Please model this.
Amino acid sequence: MSQASGPSAAAAPGAHLLPSYLQADKLGPWGIYLQQVDRVIPYLGNLARWAETLKRPKRILIVDVPIHMDDGTVAHFEGYRVQHNVSRGPGKGGVRFHQDVTLSEVMALSAWMSVKNAAVNVPYGGAKGGIRVDPKKLSLGELERITRRYTSEIGIIIGPNKDIPAPDVNTNEQIMAWMMDTYSMNTGSTATGVVTGKPVDLGGSLGRREATGRGVFTVGAEAAKHIGLDIAGSRVAIQGFGNVGGVAGKLFAEAGARVVAVQDHGGTIYREAGLDVPALLKHVQETGSVSGFAQAEVITNDQFWDVDCDILIPAALEQQITAANAGRIKARMIIEGANGPTTPEADDILQERNVLVLPDVIANAGGVTVSYFEWVQDFSSFFWDEDEINARLVKIMKGAFAGIWQVAQDNKVSLRTAAFIVACTRILRTRELRGLYP
Model:
């Protein structure tokens, strides 16, 4: 669907003036997001007059990131920070280091963060950042230099009350520590709240590392009750076995599920009787991949989509479930641990096949929820114990899921459309209340 032909075209006479990089048919992930917005507009009532707000990022910053390499050369990398919407609060979203990062991807991820934050009702807008680089090819010193230079370049738009980065693909606590330190040095005072996902010793929160995977498990367990699926004894297949998929797999296994297949960048492994998840997690920690795990058989990456399972958790990158493989999936329920793993065409196929899809904007919102807790703790300099954090996380996730489930039932729509109804209504109501300045 092109930007100009969407349901909002009549209400937005300026839509045809969109620059090419904002149009749905120009770039992948951003185009997927625009299609999702178009699907929700008929449910927004009078707020639909503001819908064009959702289709235009508030601010896009593209930066050059030059660094000295270890061999004495100077290399240049392209970096991004996109603030999609800040009507409800500071921008919030991760930073990824990946060789395939594009502006379209970062724009879409920032928009999904706007929706995600509103869906669980934390007081943030949506933002995202990234550098087009393969961090595995960098030394530790080069990684630190690229992180610090990138932070300095985007420092004009980030801050504890402006935009708060966090870890994402190929970034971690150490990188957040470098970002926090760089920003603090540039502003002249320690600002722990400029990033979340930091080491605990620098104002990070207990429970943050496991929060996204814990959220995946929490909403999955809640949804299973609604479709009569017993988690104990269920079969789970997971794509991506890092911070999200690994934690989710551990929690599902502890609840009695059998994790029968896991796929990551190193390959795909399978065991019908169920993988030994603690042993697999240790193997991944030691080797960096599921490849070579002795207690499983190897299957092809394509065969992963044919695995007999009850629950499928895509927890890697976007656009993994497409029209080409959605018809092969045997799961009763898909829990999106990654951002944007399912295309709109695949969504339609899965809905026709009565496969319940728990969308990313609610399923993986545990990370940003505990990031919010971290930010609050940094401001107050008062820190909670892990049991309290986990209890607060579960309460928010269950409440958000219950509300979205009810909206889906009332409007006879998918959970994704229901989540967008809830989130976009909150965003646009705030936009309307604030008005336009000047």
Observations:
- The chain is about 40% helix and 15% strand.
- The first helix runs from residue 28 to 40.
- Confidence is low (pLDDT under 50) at residues 1-16.
- The chain has three domains: 1-56, 58-191, 209-363.
